[in-house]
Specification:
Shape: elongated
Largest sheet: none
Number of helices: 6
Structural class: mainly alpha
Order of helices and strands: HHHHHH
Strand content: under 5%
Number of strands: 0
Radius of gyration: 20 Å
Length: 170
Amino acid sequence: LGAAVLVYLLMVLNFQSWRDPFIVLTALPAAGAGVIWGLWLTGTYFSVPALMGAIMTIGLATANSILLVTFANQRMEVGLDSFAAALDAGATRLRPVLMTAGAMLIGMVPMALGLGDGGEQNAPLGRAVIGGLSFATFATLILVPLIFSLVHGRRRHAPTQAPQETPHAA
C-alpha cells in the first residue's frame, strides 16, 4: 500500500495533476485480477516468483497506461474534447500496446510451461504475467480511455498555437 501511494505521488509530480495518475492506476486492479485468475486457473500457489510476475505485470500495465494518458492529454492540447482525445489515444496506441503485451506473453509461455530441469520453480512467474497481462491489456485499451473521458468530462483545451512572427519592413 505504501509503495502504491509513493508511485501515485511520483506520477502526480510527473503529470502535475491529481486526476491523470488516478486514471493510470485504474488499469492495475484488472492486472491484479488477471494475476489471481492465471494462478487459480493453472492451480499454482502464490509464491515469490508469482509475486515477481505480478510486479512485472503491474509495471508494464502502468507504462502502457501512462503512454495512453499522455497521448490523450496531447490530443486535448490541440483542441479535441476528452472523448475524442481518449478515442484517438486508444486507436493510436492500440498497436504498440498489443505488440508490447504480445511479445511479453509469447516470451513467458516457455517459462509458464515449466519444462526442463528446475522449470517448475519459475513457472508461477510466467503464469502470473500471462494472466495479468491478459486482463491489463484489455483494461489499458478499453477501461483507461473510458475513465479518461469520464474524469475529464467534455472539457476541451484551447489549441496551442506557435507564436507568429511579425513581418519586417525591408
